[in-house]
Every structure is written in structure tokens, then in C-alpha cells.
Amino acid sequence: MNILTALTAKVNEALVALYDVQDAEISFEKTNANFAGDYTFVVFPFLRASRKRPEDTASEIGEYLKKEVAEVEGYNVVKGFLNLELSDAYWLTVAENLSSKGVRIPNIGKGQKVVVEYASPNTNKPLHLGHVRNVVLGHSYSEIMLANGYDVVKNNLVNDRGIHICKSMLAWQRWGNEETPDSSGIKGDHLVGKYYVEFEKKFQAEYAEWLSSSEGLAQLEVFKASNEAKKHIKEGTDLAKAFKSDYKNTYFNNHSLIGAAVKIILQKWEEGDEEVIALWKKMNGWVYDGFDVTYDRLGIAFDKIYYESDTYLLGKAMVQEGLATDAFYQKADGSVWVDLTADGLDEKIVQRADGTSVYITQDIGTADLKYSDFKMDKFIYVVGNEQDYHFKVLQLILKKLNKPYADGLYHLSYGMVDLPEGKMKSREGTVVDADELMDEVVATAKKQTEELGKTEGMSAEQLADLYETLGMGALKYYLLKVDAKKRMLYDPKESIDFQGNTAPFIQYTCTRINSILRAADETGKSIAFTLPAELAPEEKDLIVLMNSYPEAVHAAGTNYNPSEVANAVYDLAKAFNKFYHEHIILGAEDENVRGFRLALSKTAGETIKHGFNLLGIGVPDRM
Prior knowledge:
Elements: H1 3-19, E1 29-30, E2 39-42, H2 47-50, H3 54-68, E3 72-78, E4 81-86, H4 88-101, E5 113-117, H5 129-147, E6 151-158, H6 163-175, H7 181-184, H8 188-211, H9 214-224, H10 227-235, H11 239-246, H12 248-254, H13 257-271, H14 274-298, E7 304-307, H15 308-311, H16 315-324, E8 329-330, E9 336-339, E10 347-351, H17 359-374, E11 378-384, H18 388-400, E12 409-414, E13 417-418, H19 434-451, H20 460-480, E14 488-489, H21 492-495, H22 503-522, H23 537-558, H24 563-582, H25 591-614
Helix pairs in contact: 1-3, 4-23, 5-23, 6-8, 6-13, 8-14, 16-17, 19-20, 22-24, 22-25, 23-24, 23-25, 24-25
């Protein structure tokens, strides 16, 4: 029986026997590191029944448990907190089970299917640092759910159509001179991204010229008299700058010559114009080839890929369904809306007056397609937190349509990634390119490894693999160790440090364990688990952390947060290094102590590798 299950049963017995409290809700937490103990029980909720001081109530329950539960060796009380101390004999039994059975994650997801959608790139630019956080987060969460026993489908919805794609197409038509990835030596997604940036430069030049024209200056005067301008005046914003920012989209739609040309391409695409479709397929093909190279280097793969060009019309039938059931309503101009004001939101358009779909329409249809394909119990969208509102609307719409899968929708919302230099901007070409970033972290790993003198006796091929493993591990871990919900600052140099909460530190811990185990094998030392006469504090710390590791994997899945695995692995690596520095392992004279410590080291290494596998991070054999 699990020790917490046994303790829960006995605390219930104690509450009945001591205070006649029936069917109490019992929970434990890990004891604060500042106090002695393994698990803590909080007695404050039961003081009314005990009619005693918190300290006395905790002491009475502690005495009961010490008598009734063999594993409880002692306890201490801090106000209303009962800190239970478990015996070394118990922890040695735990260590023996861990050594013989390895990492065991409870199969809580058995019989349940989860679709995790991540990546979801646009085909007008290469992947950047923000995409990297998305894909490593989505991949890691998928692996964590698999470890928890769920049937997981890794899904990618590629945004391969729309005005942004047409901008790259127009720029290539006008200024590309038939340039291709082969002729230029430029990776396909980078080449298309180059023309997306080129379009923006041309548009900005056109816009600047218009702003200084008589028409632009006249429009500025109209703006200065508007209510919107009054708000800017109160905020102390320069009106010319405010107008330039606020009017940009209106200019693109109503005045821009280059904007009009892009809209013509989009219209022709939707009409199926052969020439436009051929160009679209060619440029998207370049991008897909480029994406595949990046995904492969990141160790990312998908079970199912949907394309927006195939799914963007699917929601139209559901719009008609919503009208038929009064979930939606139609305005006089023919546009279709859903009223979410009763849910604390607002009214949302789901189909324009001209019959064309909007973004949410596509998501409604794609959600229905996913359910038709997979009959999933949950579908997780890994998307940045700027889309929080969008996914609240999507779930409410699906509920109003009485879709059985609506409650299973979850938006795994994550914070944006900032750089020391500031915010990234795709259209201005100031993003941190994913490919360049990977090259940089691998180069940094090489430099630091060589400086530390950790390359002796390795071939050029082995060193190349080592640098790749260290660099990619550093990048992924740095992005995953932070709570997904938090906005974060990415520092490439800090990520590759061999000290602190970094992948290289943890990877080096694993190679240290590997080295010990190799030496044991070469010298004929047994790694079989044997019971020592006593348990050192550092040994117990290792056992406690390895024992709680499955709880971290469970929590990471439940809380949609891989950082819980990352930090559990880091804590274990720290504990092992403390154990390593405080105790002799391979050279221990007592055979039982040596066998025990070798077995403990082996289990610690296996647990760390298990955690890193869930994070998508490799561990080198040596370094």
C-alpha cells in the first residue's frame, strides 16, 4: 500500500477516535525543507472538533500515528503543522523497489485519447524563437501525457493561406528574379521569409510617401479632430505617430496600391486561378522543406498535419447548424453572429455579410473534423497567451452548438519569449531565427566544452554529436524549466552554463553516473542492490526525490506544465552531486555500502534520463 494511502487511513482513524470527526478530507504536503520530516499534515481545520490548541491537537494525532503506523519513526510540531518523520527502513524498502522496478508512472490516462495541437506556423516565414518555445512545449507535454498512459495524437495545423502568404508571393513575383532555394543556396522557409520582409519594406516606403502627401496630411487633420485623438492627447502621445500607427491597416485596405495587388492575388487564390495556385504550391513547398529540416533538428514529429487551405471552409456548415438551432443569429446585412454577453464576453461574428468565413469559423470546423477523426476526450491547443480570448470564444461556441467534445477543449496558454534586446517583430525581420539560434547554442556548447577541457579522447564525430546534444538540450531546457504561463527572457549564454539550473549541468551529472557505472563494470564491482547498515541524509534525499518523481510527471500532465518535470530532474541532479561529493561510491570498502550506492546512482541516472526524454532532451554517454 502507498504510504500516503496508509497515512490517510490512519489519520481518519485518529480523528474518529480522538475527536469523533467522520469522513474528513485528508491531504498531505511535503515537509518544508527548513524543518525535519517527510510529510506534513495541517490540523487547523480540525481545531473546532478537538477544542484544543493547534500544537496539542497535532501532538495527539502524531502520537496516534507513531503507535499505529510502523513507518512513522517520529514527528515534530510547528504550530498547527504536524511533520511526520518516516523510518530509514521504509525508505530503504522504497529504494529497493525503485532499483528493481525502475521508473513507474501511474497509468491514469488509460482509455483516454488526447489530441495536442502545436507548432501551427504560417508559411510566409521561417520558424523563430517563439515557435521553438511552442514546439518544444507541445512535444514535451505530449510525451508527458503518453507517460501518464494517455493515447496521444500530435497534431499540427499549418496556416498556409491568407493575406500574409500573398504578401510573400507578390514580393517574389515583383522582385524575386526567379530566385529559388537551389539557385540562391537559401533554405526554403528563409527565402520565402525574405520576401515577406521585402514586402513590408516596400509597403512602409509607400505608406511614408502617402503620409506626407496632401491626401495623407488631410486625413491627419481629420484624425486630430476625432475622439480617438483626444485619448492620445490625454496620454501625451504624439498625434502624428499615433495616426501613423492607427491608420496603417486602413491605408492598406483603402489606399495602398501594393495592398490592392495583394488582395487581387488572394481573390484569385480563392477563385482557384491556376497560375496563382501553382505559385502558392511552389513557395509553400519551399517552406515545408525548410520546416522539416528545423523540426528534425529539434526532434519534433507529428502524427497528423492539417492545412488551413483544406479546412478553412469547414465551419460554414456549422454556421448553418447554429442558425437552425438559434445558437447563432443573422443581422440585416446578412452577417452571422453569436451572442456571448451572458457569458461575460461580447457578440462575435462567425460569418461575414458576403458569406466568407472568419478565423473562428475555421476553428469551429476544424474542431469538428478532429473529433470526427479521433473521437478524443481532450484536445489541447498550444498557443501563445495573446489568443486567450479567442479560445474562450471557441469553447463557448462549441458548447452553444451542443458539441459533446466542448468541455474537453483546453488552451495551453504560454507567455511570449523576449530577448535582452527587446520584443521580436517578424515583418521587420528582427526575430531570432530558429535555425540561427540552434547554430548559436551548439557553437557556444562547443566553445565552453573545449574551454573546460571535456573533449579528451573523443573523435571528431563524437564531439560533433556531443556539441549538438549539449546545445539543443540547453535550448530546450531553458525554455521548458519556466512555468509555461509565464512570459520569459531568453539568454543564450546563460542557457549553456555548466553550473546552475541548466541542461548541461544535468547532462554532466548523467555522464558522471555513467562513468561510475562503467568503472564498476570494468573492475567487476557489483551494482546489485544491498542493504547498508544505516542511511545517510544525502542517500535519503536521493531516494525521496526519486520516489516523488512520478508525482511530478503526474502533476505536469494535470497542470499542463512540463516545468514540473524539468525542476524535479534538476532537484535530483543537485541531490546526486551532493551525495557524490559527500560519500565514496566506487571505492567504498564495505561491499554492502558500495553495492547500495552504485544501485542508487544507477537508479538516479535512469530517473534523470526518463525526465529528459519527456522534455525531448538527449543525454550524452560521456563528456
